[in-house]
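Ticket #4471: structure export looks truncated?
Reporter: QA, pipeline team
Priority: medium

Steps to reproduce: submit the single chain below to the structure queue and open the exported record.
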Amino acid sequence: MTDHYDKLEIRDPAERERDLLAALPKQIAQAQTATSAFKKILDGVKPADITTRQALEQLPVTRKSELLELQKQRRADDPFGGFASIVRGPRMPRVFASPGTIYEPEGEARDYWRTARALHAAGFRSGDLIHNSFSYHMTPAGSIMETGAHALGCTVFAGGTGQTEQQLEAIADLKPAGYAGTPSFLKILLEKAEEKGQKLPFTKALVSGEAFPPSLHDWIAAHGVKGTQCYATADLGLIAYETSAREGLVIDEGVLVEIVRPGTGDPVPDGEVGEIVVTSFNPDYPLVRFGTGDLSAVLAGTCPTGRTNKRIKGWMGRADQTTKVRGMFVHPSQVAEIVRRFPEIQRARLVVSGEMGDDQMTFRLECAGAPDGLDARIADAVREVTKLRGTIELVAPGTLPNDGKVIEDARSYK
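Actual output as written to the record:
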């Protein structure tokens, strides 16, 4: 049997679901009572009632853009916008800043970002030296990997970004077992080492922060390094991680993940592309139904390594497809509002086409049946919701691409 990080990874899926749902009321109560932001967002919600996914789906999705706006509004009195339950001092050893600017707290918990599990899946073990080339400056990326490595019993060289020559010198002297960082910088290190006639001692790597296409994976593997990827964010920590099977990413044991239709909080069927929404069980930063803005889909089946949690296909684009048409912003939530009004619509896609100064909107809608006058009624709803006119095109179920897009900008200029 594959060497798993712990028994949580191989428990019965029904047991995992029971455990996650049993933990929901406590986490929602924590968010309501310990943070001013969720006290308002979840006003009127009774934590004891949120014990099923269906009940969770009724709660609002809080997206990163909303978190940023609340932080900006409250900069003077609370740079975390009321989302953190801890304050500066021993319980908050570090604070980070991500582009936006969004501020994130780091709590004192061991493996705060939960990356030890991903590092273990990548082949790292206690006693390994990891060359960490994630940034230690401003953003939490370096700490996200370092705290997981320490929890696993590894030693870390804090390489950070840049200074390629000095990093190669340290690698030659210290001979680390593997690498943590972006895949592009790993490629740079391997290329520079090759130019110098230097053989890097790396045999394994955990990469993140960028796309890791098969072509780059294979290039790195050809240079003797087994590259494994993980999906983590500064808000949530680890969300999903790759295993030796290289079949999608297994969802982490410390989060509850939903895939919803962009612009809504409505879950999509397994296999359909949508936005990743995460509820974390971190009491210090208790995010409930946090919309990451990233697209993915559930991958059918279970991991060949014996891990039993659901898998996602990996990063498949961004969910925020807001675009401007004839000087007016059109949002995915507006498309969702139109769809909600008509039960005949199964899926929708707004295609914006035309050339400079001549924007055209076409709503392509999958409908199993089209009663007389449906297209005219939908056109009226489009004008009411978007304040713009659009062409309605009804198509058969299964016609639209399964790529998570609800707004496609097909104009000859962008």
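Status: closed, not a bug. The export was complete when the record was re-opened. Leaving a note from the reviewer for reference: The CA atoms of residues 361 and 390 lie 5 Å apart.
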